[in-house]
Amino acid sequence: MIIRKSRSAKLFVNGTKTLEDVINDSFAITREASVRVLNMRHYDVQIVGGLVLNDGRIAEMKTGEGKTLVATLPVVLNAILGKGVHVVTVNDYLAKRDSEEMGILYNTLGLSVWFVTHDQNKENKKDAYTKDVVYATNNELGFDYLRDNMVTKKEDKAQSKLFFAIIDEVDSILVDEARTPLIISMPDNEPTSKYAKFAAIAKLLKSPLDYKIDEKQKAATLTEEWIEKIEKNWKKCRPTIVCKFNAVWKETRDA
After folding, report:
1. Start-end ranges of CATH 3.40.50.300 in the chain?
2. What is the pLDDT of residues 180-226, one digit of tens each?
3. According to the model, what pLDDT value does residue 228 have?
4. pLDDT tens sequence across 123-136
5. Cβ atoms of residues 148 and 159 within 8 Å
6. Can you give the pLDDT at residue 216?
7. 173 partner at 20 to 30 Å CA-CA among 40, 137, 208, 212?
8. Quick one: 34 exposed, middle or buried, by C-beta within 10 A (0-12, 13-18, 19+)?
9. Phi first, then psi: what are they for 93, rounded to 5°?
10. Do residues 3 and 108 make contact, with C-beta atoms less than 8 angstroms apart?
């Protein structure tokens, strides 16, 4: 009966109705299913929390007030569209634990669920991202997004559509950890000879004509005048050895 109701809600949304039209039915079905399979009933205040999360706002809850259970309400509602829902956690342990504990509820409602961790290979991740509900850490989601933007073929991407996400510990993820950028790189096929050439140029720089030093910030910055001159003369130079560059360098400095 519960699965049939859940499928009916999905058909309504895929037909003429919107999520707002079925939100009452979806929350009620999720609440009843939770009682039957998890022996946990959403309190009225948790229903309010689910409504807040569904609106894309922050619901402040203390440890032990049932954040994991609250999240199931908007997760089920948005997952019935079949576009995928991501639940973002702070570590791999929580991603795996919550997906397994709440997965019983999601499976009862006819939804597929899995988790993504850093030790999974690409094929496992690709399969996980096809599920209706995906639990993963913010770092893993971020790095997978960056990796997907580095592939040359669409079929090599791991992530599927990015539609709706709920973030646990939002202050930590979107404020504290967001201060540290995610950096990813690929092997460079360009010749390393350029490093030697520019290292030779660096030895010829003189302050303050070519660069300025900020003692407070402990940084050195090239002057705009020098950058313009060297950009104009670099094509003439194309040096293979340092001494060949010296002539152009002298011409640049004297200009």
Report:
1. 2-179
2. 888 887 776 667 777 777 777 777 777 777 888 888 777 888 888 87
3. 79
4. 999 999 999 999 99
5. yes
6. 77
7. 40
8. buried
9. -60, -45
10. yes
Q: Per-residue DSSP letters for the chain?
A: -HHHHHHHHHHHHHTT--HHHHHHHHHHHHHHHHHHHTS----HHHHHHHHHHHTT------TTS-HHHHHHHHHHHHHTTSS-EEEEESSHHHHHHHHHHHHHHHHHTT--EEEE-TTS-HHHHHHHTTSSEEEEEHHHHHHHHHHHTT-SSGGG-------EEEETTHHIIIIIGGGS---------S-THHHHHHHHHHHH--TTTTEEEETTTTEEEE-HHHHHHHHHHHHHH--SSHHHHHHHHHHHHH-
Q: Which residue's entry shows tokens 């997907």?
A: 148
Homologous superfamily (CATH) for 2-179:
P-loop containing nucleotide triphosphate hydrolases (3.40.50.300)
pLDDT at 44: 93
- For residue 24, the one-letter residue type is N
Mean pLDDT of the chain: 83
State both tokens at 63.
């440890």
